[in-house]
Amino acid sequence: MKLSVAANYDLDLVATLAGFPVAEVYGKFPTDLVGGGRPSYMGTPLTAHYLAVYASALSRHGIAFNYLLNSSCLGNREWSRSWQKKLMRLLEGLASMGIKRLTVSTSYLLERIKAAFPDFYIKVGIFAQIDTPRRARFWRDLGADALTLESFSINRDFEALRAIRAAVDCELQLVANHPCLPNCAMQPYHQNGFAHSSDGSRRLFVDYCFLQCTFRRLEDPSLLIKAGWIRPEDTRFYESLGYDSFKLLERGIPSVDLAERVAAYSRRRSIPNLAELILPYGFKRAPAKRRFWLLRHFFRPGQVRLSRLAPLYGMMKDQGMLFALDRNPFYIDSEKIPADFIEGFAQRRCSALACAECRYCDGIAAGAVRVEPEFRHEQLARLRQTHQDLIHGGLWHV
Question: Which domains, from first to last, does the chain contain?
């Protein structure tokens, strides 16, 4: 087993990670010219000097740092001379820190980096949507050293996983602990929103897609089972298919929670509340943020009605999204998930089935998933109000 673990930049955690099969830690500056897979307001504050110190500490323990250039869209800025010069300076700076691994999601960026810096080890990220043998071969033939598969949709599609493994000889990685909606129709829009909310453009970004999927999970908690995550206990099954590299989310979370995730997957044993391994929020300590992050990223005088952001702010705070939370209102009882849970998908191909007809996950969710009723009621009301403001224009001064 090899783990790729999200960075929270805690130097004191590095020695702990070294005690587990952690091959690399991944992260990036909250903002750079390429952008990435999270809005900049979620990024851990980070200077170039501290990144160099952190990468060096990892290296001393035999762990690589993988810098994310995984934006799904470059906004056509990549064809300008100034952008190209900035890219070269960024790459030179990373190389000078001893950082030798990168993750990209656009084919041009892969080719451009390989041409200028052939010694970089380049992994293709999940936003490249590699979900077929043909797509895997495309990236491998282009020069990629490793591929992260489109785990949101194919983690439980064993036919596809076997075919992709047979098609390429490079490292293949699966995202193990994501809560995303299966085959999410909003994915391209969502990842492009992330790209332009972390590329330094400073445009207002309201995470409409995240609000939508949060609402859907609250409305139908069985989606927490249908999400396509991999239990720690089931990693051996995936290794039997030829997959031994697993990516663990989430960047910037408190060290105690990040260490718990690494330990659970390393030991192949779930904790009592599986939701604490897969949800990107709901921690007892708040993630590190820049001072005045709310004003920096959402205050737009004369454009946005701050009073209409109150339901959104309340929802974020009550669910522990970038805030501390004294208890997790979501509970997925690990003991109520059958020991042969993953084998239940061997005769099912979710992409070809209607959940209403199959109901395998629904039956498990009925016994395993609990959401505090009062919390659920309040959050659904707030999300409905925020959705109305977004759809009918009530958020803006018009």
Answer: 2-392 (3.20.20.70)
Residue with tokens 């200028």: 116
Angular region, 103: left φ>0, alpha ψ -120 to 50, beta rest: beta
Q: Give me the residues paired with residue 26 across strands.
A: 6, 66
Distance from C-alpha of 83 to C-alpha of 65, rounded to nearest angstrom: 24
Residue 285 sits at φ, ψ, to 5 deg, of: -115, 140
pLDDT digits (tens, 9 = 90+) for 164-210: 999 999 999 999 999 999 889 999 999 999 999 999 888 888 889 99
- On whether the pTM is more than 0.90, the answer is yes
C-alpha span between 82 and 12 (Å, rounded): 38
Of 23-27, 91-95, 392-396, the least confident: 392-396
Residues 6+ apart with CB under 8 A from 19: none
| CA atoms of 393 and 376, how far apart (whole Å) | 25
CA 317 to chain centre: 20
Find, among 34, 128, 129, 114, the residue nearest to 74 by Cα: 34
Q: Measured between alpha carbons, how far is 116 from 32 in angstroms, rounded to an integer?
A: 19
Please state, in angstroms and as integers, the Cα–Cα distance from residue 178 to each residue in 115, 174, 175, following that order: 33, 10, 7
pLDDT digit string, tens, across residues 56-93: 999 999 999 999 999 999 999 999 999 999 999 999 99
State how far the Cα of 318 lies from the Cα of 353, in Å rounded to an integer: 35
What is the number of H-type helices and E-type strands within the chain? 18, 10
Decide: helix, strand or coil at residue 36: coil
CA atoms within 13 A on the CB side of 2: 16
The answer to whether the CB of 183 falls within 8 A of the CB of 152 is yes
CB–CB of 38/207 below 8 Å?
A: no
Tokens of residue 215, six digits: 């609402």
Q: 24: which 2 tokens?
A: 């690399």
CB atoms within 10 A of CB 54: 21
Helix (H, G, I), strand (E, B) or coil at 51: helix
- What does residue 302 show for φ and ψ, rounded to 5 degrees? 80, -5
DSSP 268: T
Collapsed DSSP state (helix, strand, coil) of residue 1: coil
Q: How far apart are the C-alpha atoms of 334 and 370, rounded to whole Å? A: 12
3-class secondary structure, 141: helix
